[in-house]
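Try this one yourself first.
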């Protein structure tokens, strides 16, 4: 035993002499008393005590890490391979205060762990920080000697690395992050096994997660959970760790910690962490394993907690983050490409999680719609305009309604004031293309569902057509809505031409302002679309037609590649596809496929594709149709008149429909 100690001391002394020689060549230093004393003792005696060995080792490591540019040569490597040397080395990273009582974090409740996570760390000792930094450089270096030490002493390193989370540690988390990241890159499987698979992921839940407010710790957790696949073994181990976290209730744990109102800083960190978990999971294979709880019965409880955090809180940053979480759950399963005529949604790893989230949200959509009204009970949208968070909520409503089976029930539960807010905001937000696109999609979806009570509220009671035309024709007004106005009015026109809705057909056939504006609508729409067909290069197909905000506006399962191939053909090969009526590229991109036999637009109108006439145009003249119509036909009409006229129009429409049924 003494011979081994003597050999170790000899190695240490040789390394020490080399260190001192290098140091003497660059700067004048004072040899530590402990080092000088150790040299005298070892020179005088053949046997050394345990205390002498340890003091010599401590002095050597400290002197090495105090250099401005320490080198890890072969002699230092030999020293670090000695028994107990890596333990001494890691004390400069963990920086434990041995005078404080040691705490077992696994035996503490979460509140106590949070309290310990806020303990003040001493960063005033510049020399200690310098040694910690150089130790970090040694443990994250990439030379042969660095990797040799890291591979041989891996478990010694990681066992001491997590001591930085103890309440008596003064370690620097930025140094921890760099070491942790390097070990994850070099030893992903071992790190996943050590941190997650062992001991019910005690290191994650008891040591790391209470420190989510530290960005370096949050980044470290995410880098490990979603480590990239460098080989099949890494992918297998990562998926195994995801399964283990699911079994341990990882998702439920995050959601529960988002409700800790007495710790707002931690709630914010937990919400940010949840957002990043969703984003990262959507980019790795089988990332949905972490969210399997949503597919079970507990999924309804999880979603209800998130919804309550939205509807029970006033407008705040906390509510905005929760809305963003729900939005990501609803949308992150679809990896959409750039908008083009050939763009098809691609199912991402969280596709079925998105569908499940939408199913869980269906019954809560009326509550979300009511939230818009409750936030503006005594004020209008001019004083309290829609925020970016409101637009995220609208996006959630749209996506959920789009894929829901109970579309009419959802629309029936939507408050009338919700549609008023949407329509008013379209005209007030003159430069918000994000909202204009959302509004257009919601209008198109509502028209496609064809639930007449909602259409009456949206189109009649809000005087939608008249307001759209007034906005478009007001040349003094600076607005970016005119393109969307053309799209909405063309949507109504094509819907009437295809006889998709008797109500819409009746409305626009007797609407004097629409009939007056129809030639302008066709002329301006043709002016926008005809240049697309002017591609004249021989043997070169024209670019795909872009005829709307996100063409083609078709349901995913009704838009195969074959249906969009005509949009890529040469203009000279498909002249019938030009124009803006049913059967044209324009109609297809707005969601209207080739009309079926018996419902197509009359032949004489289809033959005049570039004319100013539409099948929805009325031939009646001289009768004041605004009496039947019920919509405000002038900008100055009062809302009360609109409502009263709307009721009479509704009665007239219902009478006509009854006569048709009798026939």
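Now uncover the answer:
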């Amino acid at each position: 035993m003494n011979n081994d100690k003597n050999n170790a001391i000899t190695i240490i002394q040789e390394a020490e002499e080399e260190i001192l020689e290098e140091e003497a060549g660059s700067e004048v230093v004072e040899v530590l008393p402990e080092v000088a004393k150790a040299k005298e003792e070892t020179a005088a005696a053949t046997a050394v005590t345990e205390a002498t060995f340890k003091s010599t080792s401590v002095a050597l490591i400290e002197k090495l890490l105090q250099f401005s540019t320490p080198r890890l040569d072969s002699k230092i490597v030999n020293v670090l391979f000695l028994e107990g040397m890596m333990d001494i080395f890691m004390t400069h990273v963990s920086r434990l205060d041995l005078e404080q009582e040691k705490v077992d974090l696994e035996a503490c409740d979460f509140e106590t762990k949070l309290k310990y996570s806020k303990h003040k760390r001493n960063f005033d000792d510049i020399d200690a920080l310098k040694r910690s930094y150089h130790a970090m450089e040694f443990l994250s270096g990439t030379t042969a000697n660095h990797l040799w030490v890291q591979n041989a002493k891996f478990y010694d390193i990681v066992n001491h690395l997590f001591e930085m989370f103890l309440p008596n540690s003064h370690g620097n988390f930025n140094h921890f992050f760099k070491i942790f990241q390097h070990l994850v890159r070099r030893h992903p499987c071992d790190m996943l096994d050590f941190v997650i698979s062992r001991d019910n992921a005690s290191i994650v839940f008891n040591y790391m997660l209470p420190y989510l407010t530290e960005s370096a710790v949050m980044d470290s957790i995410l880098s490990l959970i979603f480590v990239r696949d460098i080989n099949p073994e890494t992918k297998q181990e990562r998926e195994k760790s995801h399964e283990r976290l699911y079994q341990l209730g990882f998702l439920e744990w995050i959601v529960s910690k988002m409700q800790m109102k007495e710790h707002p800083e931690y709630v914010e960190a937990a919400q940010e962490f949840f957002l990043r978990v969703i984003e990262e999971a959507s980019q790795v294979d089988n990332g949905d394993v972490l969210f399997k709880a949503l597919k079970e019965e507990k999924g309804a409880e999880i979603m209800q907690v998130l919804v309550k955090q939205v509807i029970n809180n006033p407008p705040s940053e906390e509510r905005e983050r929760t809305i963003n979480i729900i939005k990501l759950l609803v949308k992150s399963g679809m990896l959409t490409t750039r908008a083009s005529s050939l763009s098809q949604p691609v199912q991402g790893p969280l596709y079925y999680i998105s569908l499940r989230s939408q199913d869980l949200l269906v019954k809560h959509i009326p509550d979300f719609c009511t939230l818009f009204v409750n936030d503006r009970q005594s004020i209008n949208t001019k004083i309290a305009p829609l925020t970016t968070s409101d637009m995220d909520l609208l996006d959630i409503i749209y996506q959920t309604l789009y894929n829901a089976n109970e579309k009419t029930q959802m629309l029936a539960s939507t408050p009338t004031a919700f549609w008023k807010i949407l329509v008013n905001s379209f005209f007030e937000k003159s430069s918000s293309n994000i909202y204009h696109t959302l509004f257009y999609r919601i209008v198109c979806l509502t028209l496609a569902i064809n639930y007449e009570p909602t259409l009456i509220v949206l189109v009649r009671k809000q005087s939608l057509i008249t307001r759209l035309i007034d906005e478009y024709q007001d040349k003094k007004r600076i607005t970016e809505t005119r393109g969307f106005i053309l799209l909405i009015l063309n949507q109504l026109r094509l819907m009437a031409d295809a006889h998709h809705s008797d109500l819409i057909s009746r409305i626009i056939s007797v609407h004097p302002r629409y009939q007056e504006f129809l030639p302008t609508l066709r002329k301006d729409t043709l002016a926008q679309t005809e240049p697309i067909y002017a591609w004249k290069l021989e043997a070169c197909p024209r670019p795909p037609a872009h005829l709307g905000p996100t063409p083609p506006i078709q349901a995913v399962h009704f838009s195969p590649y074959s249906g969009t191939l005509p949009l890529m053909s040469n203009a000279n090969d498909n002249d019938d596809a030009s124009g803006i009526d049913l059967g044209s590229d324009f109609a297809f991109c707005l969601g209207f496929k080739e009309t079926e036999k018996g419902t197509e637009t009359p032949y004489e109108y289809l033959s005049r594709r570039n004319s100013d006439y539409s099948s929805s145009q009325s031939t009646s003249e001289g009768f004041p149709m605004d009496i039947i119509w019920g919509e405000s036909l002038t900008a100055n009409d009062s809302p009360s008149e609109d409502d009263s006229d709307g009721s009479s129009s509704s009665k007239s429409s219902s009478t006509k429909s009854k006569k048709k049924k009798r026939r």
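Discussion: Strands lie at 334-335, 346-347. The radius of gyration is 35 Å.
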